[in-house]
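Sharing a chain and its predicted structure for anyone who wants a worked example. Both blocks are below, sequence first, tokens second.
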Amino acid sequence: MLPTDIELLTAPRSPALHGDLLLTGLSRPDLEANRAHGVVRRVGLAGGDRPWTYGPRDSAPAISPDGSRVAFLRVTGERGAQLHVMPADGGEAKRITDVPLGVEGYRWGPDSRRIAFTARVPEPGRYGTPDADGRTPDAGAEAPRRITRFDYRIDHVGFLLDRPQRLFVVDSDIEEPAEPAPLTDDRVDVHDPEWTPDGEFVLVVAPRDWGRVETLNSDLYAVPAAGGEPVLAVRTEGDAAAPLVTADGTVYFHGVAFTGVDMVRNRGLWTAPLRTDGEPATARRLTDAETVDTDSGAGRPAVLGDEVLVVVRTHGAAELRAVPSDAHLAKLADLRCLLGEKAAVQAFTSDGERIAAVVASPSDAGEVVLLENGESRTLTEFSAPLRGKVRTAVELTATASDGHEVHGWVVLPEGDGPHPVLLVIHGGPFSPYEWSLFDEAQVYASAGYAVVMANPRGSAGYGEAHGRAIVGALCTVDVTDLLSFLDAALERPDLDASRVGVMGGSYGGLMTTWLSAHHGERFRAAWSERAVNAWDSFAGSSDIGWEFAECYVGTDPEVQRERSPLTYAAKIGIPFAVVHSEEDWRCPIEQAQRLFVALRGNGVETEFLLFPGEGHELSRSGRPRHRVQRFDAVLEWWGRHLA
């Protein structure tokens, strides 16, 4: 796979199913336009697909409950994605919203006419909107922001307090696009709207106590669809995401139980009765906290008979599992697996007994799969252009020096070797490498490198204790696991132990710097990207620094110094690439600048590669041309140092 082959990464998203109508959004990087190209496709239940919309920036289809209409998001002009509606049997799409910064998420009402959606509402005079005098200042001429809270910005979005995300309801029968009056005020961001069965309320996720103070906790609030004060519907034990309300008034949601900033916990499936009378319901956990880690990003829970479907992360897989609706702390081993063994279910939906899912494997970016009568069928071939370009990922389990098992993969290039080796470390840290195609590993393997990828302690999907092992203990057992896994991989005769490089981004960048300082003799060179390098400044400059640093390393300045790779920069002697994005607010640019200056001052062969206009997610969702330029730079770096 070449760097420019990212254009072949055609990925289905957001499946929608009603009767025989199955739709999916489809996205791919477009190098010529230098942005993602998006369309909606209709997938035949017997296989194959055809256009439903022609883009170029369409996404997120949803079918009305009665099956008569389809809504989707379309970006036109500079006002972000707007809601469009069209007949389910075909015809012209009609735009029904006109909100300045675009629609974020939406949900059909039970009457198949109204749609609840969330959108950011800017203060007058900001983000291209007119001020009180009717002038529209450019960004550099906007009034100063008055900031009084920690949670004032977030990476990839920007500032928050001057454009809160609010709830709206729009009638899809309107003749002209509208910006209806918001149903929630400007004190909080709300998200994940879900209707009550009677259509009287919209359930939303919002910060605890309606955002009175900064908090990581959230609850479910019921907002009257006709207007009125929100009421607390479900009090959680930590937070909530992606709620579903069933016809009998039962609420299911993904939730985490935690207090303070200690969020490194497995997410699980929770339930509660629906309450809209001002007396909040108490939630009950259905799944075991240690063994079950649900993925809210794969979608809302779905009801299938007397079971509830959720995606669970486990040992590098993302499996569709069935949870009995009357379960109490059910363990993973007791939950039926429907899809996703040694694969990754990225999204799913259901209609009656049918389930449609997007399932990715190590050889594709995702295909639409239909599950019916206990049998699954892959309906699409979106990744067909990648055939012959994807290298094999070999599963490997190693044993760390303290006896702990470490799981991961080695992606092998063509030929007998011995091949130069790249130890590639994921970010998070509470996330995993998965049984799905990883474009970076494929590009490096195609260039002749054996790519070693492990899920050390601190990663998700191997039990909550595994993920929490580095809370307050960064750069201890995770280092042990990574080096033990690398040792096990290097036992292969087709890997060259004398030519090893180390690289990673975010937490992986932190580990790259740490390993270079403490175990630099093992590596020829390093590539550290969008990294945390110094906890003292990260705590004050990162969008999540006010809570993330305290969670993982605490607030003691001496402990922060001890756990900061920058502290040990003088020990680094190998060639070192510092890579960052100018608009990264997760790991701000000062983290890279400080490390580069320290290394350069110490006489290390070092380079600073800085991408303009990009944030923390450059390598995954940045501008396509920047992604290719980054790949080119990576391959040039390793060509110099591992050839």
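Comments welcome. The two ends are 19 Å apart (CA to CA).
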